[in-house]
Write a structure and sequence with these properties.
Layout (H helix, E strand, L loop, with lengths): L19 H12 L1 H12 L14 H32 L1 H33 L5 H35 L3 H38 L14 H9 L4 E4 L10 E11 L9 H5 L21 H13 L16 E10 L12 H9 L6 E10 L4 E12 L2 E11 L17 H13 L1 H21 L19 H4 L8 H28 L5 H21 L22
Parallel strand pairs: 1-3
Antiparallel strand pairs: 2-6, 3-4, 4-5, 5-6
Helix pairs in contact: 1-3, 2-3, 3-4, 3-6, 3-7, 3-12, 4-5, 4-6, 5-6, 6-11, 9-14
């Protein structure tokens, strides 16, 4: 009897890579010119603007790779422009030969891609966008017109050159020289494009899973940015106070009056026919507030901090990847300095005086999937008007764009990747040549416009962060459904614990919690009602805020 070897039925996963999001964004520096230029223009070259916080990734290596990619791209574009200028001045006929060849090549590639996409759309039954179709047809037609026009000029110039030659041999030599010159120009331009894609692939090889990305360049500005990205204060610009935290998922808030519980009826008085005067709402208010907002937050911090995992933590008693920290949000128009740290003393003052421009939140953040998914639940507590105001806001960062995650795919490295780099370099020759002068002009404008010194801040100007590199690299789509479910899960876990902790605190302070139970219970019951009516269908901007699996009750 042959023994069958034991096979483990559970496929053990690899350990989580905490640098996943950082690697993907470093890859974006080489794969997306718009991402690279925007990150440098809006973050690196803005010493008079705050840096958005970095959640789930390290900003320094990303900007370092952006700097190196831009430097190499500038050399590539400068070489292309130099070849074009020298060839135009030294050999005009050969120059037009090269232009006609490249225009014809572009027309052929654009037409082939258009036919491929049309066939694919008809085969899959997907609708064809009329506007996109017309635009692509116009570009292909434009390439054909340029090809014919330049080819006509080339033939005309070649005819004059042949007629002016002293003999037939001289005319033949002129034609061969022209064609050879045009071929040389095309070869040099192709070398610039192909060299870039091969060099880019070499850089992507160093960003595969398991490799820790580091900044390839050193600069004082990079060190300054790395110091600013992890502060406890978010200096935001424009409208979004949670810049860097991703998409807004949901906000719930409620104000609860601080009153004593209703007095229990006196059975002896009722037995003798006497009734006590009915209590008014005002008579049940505390003469002095029973607590301050910082006491509530201290209780919440201790309660939620017990969920933070660590060595020796029992499974099921913690939330892996959870951190609970103080976070101050301050508008960029109100800031007097760009230091992203607020002292504990100042945080205490902000909590007790919530009417200042600064707002305090307890940030409960879960980093999962190696930094690809970051769920943040912001808890704001204020005591105003003899009432407790509780606000819970959830945001979510979802994975980077699919094209940036190519370093994690089977085809992202190895022979297939190198052949793809060759193909991209050859097919992209016309587009690279056309963009070269524009890219050089943009680099020049950026260098001139950002050459000023930092200087002191002036009142009323907006120095807040407007662009977060992590958000810039995301397209707002999860990689799979489980990531969406995780966002929803962590939100509900933290939100439920917040409700329960505040309820325990209020009960301990002898505060009437009837209204609080109704408000929080109504919040949970609405979710359950929506669940029953939608059949677990997800809605909402990120995770289906209106969906819920399972029954929940108001905290007791």
């Amino acid at each position: 009897m042959t023994s069958v070897p034991h096979q483990n039925s559970y496929a053990t996963p690899f350990p989580e890579d905490p640098t996943t999001a950082t690697r993907h964004l470093c890859a974006a520096a080489y794969l997306d010119e718009d991402f690279r230029n925007t990150a440098l223009r809006e973050v690196y070259h803005q010493p008079r603007r705050a840096v958005a916080p970095s959640y789930g990734f390290n900003l320094g290596p990303v900007l370092g790779h952006c700097l190196r990619a831009r430097t190499v791209a500038v050399f590539r574009d400068a070489a292309i422009l130099l070849v074009l200028i020298v060839s135009f001045c030294a050999a005009g006929t050969a120059f037009f030969t090269a232009v006609a060849t490249l225009a014809g090549f572009y027309t052929a590639v654009a037409t082939a891609r258009l036919i491929r996409d049309l066939v694919r759309s008809l085969r899959d039954g997907t609708p064809i966008g009329l506007t996109t179709l017309i635009a692509r047809l116009l570009f292909a037609g434009l390439g054909l017109v340029v090809t014919i026009s330049v080819a006509s000029l080339f033939v005309t110039a070649l005819s004059f050159s042949a007629l002016s030659a002293a003999s037939i041999d001289g005319a033949a030599t002129s034609v061969v020289a022209t064609l050879g010159g045009g071929f040389l120009i095309v070869t040099l331009l192709a070398g610039c494009s192909l060299g870039w894609t091969l060099w880019r692939q070499a850089q992507l090889q160093n960003l595969r899973p398991g490799m820790v990305p580091a900044s390839p360049v050193e600069a004082p500005r990079l060190r300054e940015i790395e110091q600013q990205q992890y502060g406890n204060t978010v200096i935001y610009g424009d409208f979004r106070p949670f810049v860097g935290a991703g998409d807004w998922v949901d906000t719930w808030g409620s104000a609860i009056r601080l009153t004593r519980p209703p007095a229990e009826p006196d059975l002896n008085e009722r037995a003798h026919g006497r009734t006590r005067a009915a209590e008014t709402e005002g008579s049940r208010e505390f003469e002095q507030l029973p607590f301050q907002a910082d006491e509530v937050l201290a209780h919440l911090g201790w309660h939620l901090g017990s969920l933070v995992g660590g060595p020796g933590t029992v499974a099921g008693e913690s939330i892996t990847g959870l951190t609970v920290t103080d976070r101050v949000l301050l508008a960029g128009t109100e800031v007097s300095h760009l230091h992203p740290m607020t002292s504990p003393h100042d945080i205490a003052q902000i909590i007790r005086n919530p009417t200042t421009p600064a707002r305090h939140h307890l940030a409960c953040q879960v980093v999962s999937w190696g930094g690809e998914v970051v769920t943040t639940v912001y808890v704001h507590v204020a005591i105003q008007g003899r009432s407790l105001y509780l606000e819970v806001t959830t945001t979510a960062l979802k994975p980077c764009a699919p094209e940036f995650r190519i370093v994690d795919t089977v085809d992202g490295s190895g022979t297939v990747a190198w052949w793809r780099a060759v193909k991209d370099g050859l097919v992209g020759i016309p587009a690279t040549i056309v963009r070269a002068p524009v890219n050089l002009l943009q680099a020049l404008v950026t260098a001139i416009s950002t050459s000023g010194s930092a200087g002191p801040l002036q009142r009323g100007l907006d120095y807040g962060a407007r662009v977060a590199v992590r958000e810039l690299g995301s397209r707002g789509h999860a990689r799979n459904l489980v990531q969406l479910l995780d966002i929803d899960k962590y939100q509900r876990l933290i939100e439920r614990r917040v409700f329960a902790a505040v309820l325990d605190f209020l009960d301990g302070k002898n505060v009437d919690t009837t209204e609080y139970r109704a408000r929080t219970g109504g919040r949970l019951n609405i979710e359950n009602a929506v669940l029953a009516g939608t059949g677990n269908t997800f809605h909402g901007p990120v995770s289906g805020r209106d969906s819920h699996v399972g029954k929940e009750e108001a905290p007791r």
